[in-house]
Amino acid sequence: MPLRCTKDGRDLLAFDITSDQAWEELRAQNARSKSLRLPCCQSEVVLRTSKLGTRHFAHASRGDCAWASETAQHLLAKRLIAEAVREALWEPLLEQAGTSITGEEWRADVLALKPGSNARVAIEVQWSQQTIADTEARQARYKSAGIRGLWLFQQANLPISDAIPAFRLEASDSGLDFTVALPSHEYVERVASRPKPGDECQWGQRVEIKAFVRGALSGKLQFAPALRDPVPMQVFAATIFCWRCKRETNVITELRFPPSDHLAAREAISVYWDEVSGADEGRFLIDFVARYLPPQLLKELGIGVIKARASQTADTTYVSNGCIHCDRIQGNFYVAELREQATEAFGIPVKLEERLAEQWPGLWGAVTKWVLRE
């Protein structure tokens, strides 16, 4: 049930015909001239109105055309999206087809073109079930054609990644409007795929469909902004007597991340240093420490250098606290015992890397997945 047909080789969009009188006049004219054609197969056209009041075109005789039928909800959503694309000052192309550089065919519900730019966004309404594997394959097809795909699903199980912007499309009780639900920081695909009462925590922002499309095309839609924008981090430290030189030194016991706009936790997330330091001695952790816990700052607070050291007790090497006097490792076991005595040494904004956040229990799960900024 397309929203687009052609007349004398030019596109005609059903929702551009705004009055009942004009729609009936077009119907009568087409009955006489048979001048309207569907671009999918060049079939003759009949004019219809869905049960939700959306004017659209249909095959006078389907024949062997492969165009799949669409629900009234799908049609209405396409129309609202196309109107929002125009409101964002982009050009909407309805039901556009093309071929990727690998020869695979694609067809977009609404292809949004940015004037004066090569930017193209295919906005897809997926009202029937589609597997994540199929979504990934179709997105790859768009990417190879130089198009960014944006997906709106009726189903609750979505692919969640920066590469595939996917969101849930919810119809209003009247069926005449839609809301787009953005996955929250608690979203889990296997839970969302079998929703139960109380699973509303899977969803964060809810935005009216046209406002969502306008925001997405204006650059306000962001994936996991905590991985781009600074989030606050508090550094807690305590005093210990060095086992080697017997002198007092301060050691970091905890990195604490309080709730913020991009870290959607109900309470502060504590990452204990004895857990962090044993996670990995990889370059990404060393780089993080070098940026945000530099030796000069730590020295002013009586804290030794943070670096990878060999532990004979643990028979391994890990990123550790060191004595400010003799630089000997202050082992995780002893640091863990000081958690209750620690106080905040300083606070600093940090930028989380995705790989680093994934190493820290509880932290990656609290990173807001998608945000539409106001």
Account of the protein in words:
This protein is α+β, with helices and mostly antiparallel strands and 374 residues long. It has three domains: 1-67, no CATH class; 70-220, Trna Endonuclease, Chain: A, domain 1 (3-Layer(aba) Sandwich), CATH 3.40.1350; 231-372, no CATH class. 23% of the residues lie in helices and 33% in strands. The mean pLDDT is 90.
The total domain count is 3
Please state the CA-atom Rg, rounded to the nearest Å: 28 Å
CATH architecture of the largest domain: 3-Layer(aba) Sandwich
According to CATH, what is the class of the largest domain?
Alpha Beta
Concise summary:
With 374 residues, the protein is of the alpha+beta class. Helices cover 23% and strands 33% of the residues. It folds into three domains: 1-67, no CATH class; 70-220, 3-Layer(aba) Sandwich (Trna Endonuclease, Chain: A, domain 1), CATH 3.40.1350; 231-372, no CATH class.
